[in-house]
Amino acid sequence: MSELVVRRASRSDWAAYRAIRLEALLDSPEAYGEIYSEASAQADGHWQDRVSNDNRPLYLALLGDRVVGTLSGGLNDDYPGTLWLYGMFVTAQARGTDAAPLLMEALADWCRDAGGTSLHLFVNVEQRRAIAFYTKVGFVETGEVITMHRDDSLKLQRMEWNVG
Asked: Residue 140 gets which letter from DSSP?
């Protein structure tokens, strides 16, 4: 059995990232700010830039040579000075493994290396499994709820994790 490895994505990972991102958009469309039809139409250069953006580090969880999980971090202009988790996804066959916790630890390390002490995220209030996972890791609900920019019927709650 292959060992699970988490590492930062590089430009050469663009096709693998594209595949898992599109899988995520099909699996849980209510969780993401973009939709499958728009993402799948993006040119290769878009995906190459996305995996190599120093301002938005992207991490991959690999089982052998297969990408089974991903997440990214970055800033949020609406919350100056804060660091955020974006676009977490773990494939169905890797759920319940160490993929998600290892991805979270990689992002926490990035946050600390960047001088941050906490990570923030927005999660769909209907995604109980995701909320339970984030809570288990250490995120707490802040009480802030907003609507998703692309669909006002989708409510997102902000959570924060002190990674100090």
From this structure: E
Q: What does pTM read for this prediction?
A: 0.94
For residues 77 and 44, the answer to whether their CB atoms sit within 8 Å is: no
What distance in Å separates the CA atoms of residue 69 and residue 158, rounded to the nearest whole number?
A: 22
d(CA 133, CA 32): 17
Give pLDDT tens digits for 18-55. Answer: 999 999 999 999 999 999 999 999 999 999 999 999 88
Mean of per-residue pLDDT scores for the chain:
96
Contact 60, 70 (CB under 8 A): yes
Structural domain count, the chain: 1
Strand order in the sheet with 66-75: 4-8, 58-63, 66-75, 83-90, 118-124, 151-162, 140-148
Residue 86, domain CATH: 3.40.630.30
Owning domain of residue 87: 4-162
Q: Indicate the helix (H) or strand (E) that contains 50.
A: helix 44-51
Place of tokens 């997102």: 156
Residues 6+ apart with CB under 8 A from 109: none
Query: For residue range 107-124, what is the model confidence (pLDDT) as tens digits?
Result: 999 999 999 999 999 999
